[in-house]
Every structure is written in structure tokens, then in C-alpha cells.
Amino acid sequence: MLRILAMLGWMSIALSAQQPSEEDLAKLAAHIDKALGVRPGMRIADIGTGLAIQHPIRIARGVAPEGSVTCVEISQAAVDRIRNRVADEHIANMNAQLGKTDDPLLAAGQFDAILISNAYHEFGEPQEMLKHICDALKADGTLVVVENYSIEHRKEARAEQAKRHDMAPEILERELAAAGFTVKERVDPVLVNSPDRMRYLVRATKTQR
């Protein structure tokens, strides 16, 4: 009986961890905004927005009225979905554009900060993408990456982790350094998805030469 109760208790903890509370999600949002340095007048890009449109919407409101947010996706359907949501929400300072798998097609030197949330593991050509991201940032610009990793599979090869939509922080930081970034902060975990899967945040800037 005690064993059954213990198992039920563990299952309850695991289930609650898989479904983050509103408070946990609010803390995640606060960490992202702080890392980006969100303030009125900023120009921020969100690469690989996906279904998490709440992040750029929140950020757009934080940089209004003079600032703006540009969402980048690689499929026209995803771009259209974001544009429709922007129209429904009447957000004047947020837009979406089509990018490529190795280039977000952002204007050079125009962005104060760039966010990649739960999308870095999808980059098939990370060094090319990071090069263009670096070019798009202003000299003092900030890159913020939010990703997940499995404790059990943390040391596996990049390709194997990417199949599970994971990317260990050690791999990310190594690739950032190779692309000309200096990691300034890592929050690990920034959110607990389950007993085995953690979400973390990395803030980086251009390496000063």
C-alpha cells in the first residue's frame, strides 16, 4: 500500500511538472523580458515564433509605442497565422516575415535584441543562422535563447537531442562562442517541464574584438 501511495505521489508531482502553473509561466516571461532588456523604443526580433505568439505580443506591448517586434518563420502558413493574430489583437508595432533555414533575412545592424525560444534545436545550419543573427544585431545587441534539455540524454550527440526537440546548454554555448558571441548569463533551470526535462535561458552579446 505504501509503495502504491508513493508511486501515486510521484505521478502527481510529474504531472504537475509537465503542466507549469500560471505563476511559473509568468516567471519565465519575466526572465525573458529582463534578459532582452525590454523597454520602450527597442527593436526586437523573435526567430521561430511557432505557436508561442504570446511572447512577441507581450514584448511588442513592452516596447511600444516607438519600438517594434519582427517575427520570423520559414513557412508562409506560419507567417500568415501570426499576421492574422496581430490583426485580431490590433497590434500596430508587430509584424511577421518569411526567413530561410540558414538566414532570418533581417536587416543588418538594426536590432537591439533577438529572441529564439524553443526553436534553436530546429536549426539545421546553426553556424550560418547565428552568423546572420550576429549581423542583424546592433554592436551592443543581445541574443536570448530559451531551450529544453533532458537530464538523462544531456550528453548525447546534437543530432540525437534535436530529434527530441532538445539542446543541452553545453552544445548551445559552444556554438554561440564559435559564431562570435560571448555568453553573459545562463539561468538553468528557468522552468521545470518534467522531472527529466528542464528549460533554460542563455543571454549572449557580440564578442568585442
| Radius of gyration of CA atoms, rounded to a whole number | 18 Å
Helix content: 25-40%
Look up the CATH topology.
Rossmann fold
Average pLDDT reading: 91
**Count of beta strands:** 7
CATH-level-2 architecture: 3-Layer(aba) Sandwich
Which stretches are poorly predicted, pLDDT < 50 over at least 5 residues? 1-17
State the shape: globular
The string of secondary-structure elements, in order, is HHEHEHEEHEHHEE
**Strand-residue proportion:** 25-35%
CATH class: Alpha Beta
Spatial order of the strands forming the largest sheet: 3-2-1-4-5-7-6
* Sheet/helix structural class: alpha/beta
Helix count equals 7
* CATH H-level superfamily title: Vaccinia Virus protein VP39
Largest sheet: 7 strands, mixed
How far apart, in Å, are the first and last alpha carbons?
64 Å
Notes on the protein architecture:
With 209 residues, the chain is α/β, with parallel strands linked by helices. The protein has a single domain, classed as Vaccinia Virus protein VP39 (Rossmann fold). It has seven helices and seven strands. The chain has helices spanning 2-18, 22-36, 54-63, 76-89, 126-136, 158-163, 169-178; strands at 43-47, 68-73, 94-98, 111-117, 137-150, 181-192, 197-206. Strands 3-2-1-4-5-7-6 form a seven-stranded mixed beta sheet, sandwiched between helices. Helix 3 (54-63) links the parallel strand 1 and strand 2. The longest helix is centred in the N-terminal third of the chain and has 17 residues, at 2-18. The radius of gyration is 18 Å and the shape is globular. 37% of the residues are buried. Mean pLDDT is 91; it is low at 1-17.
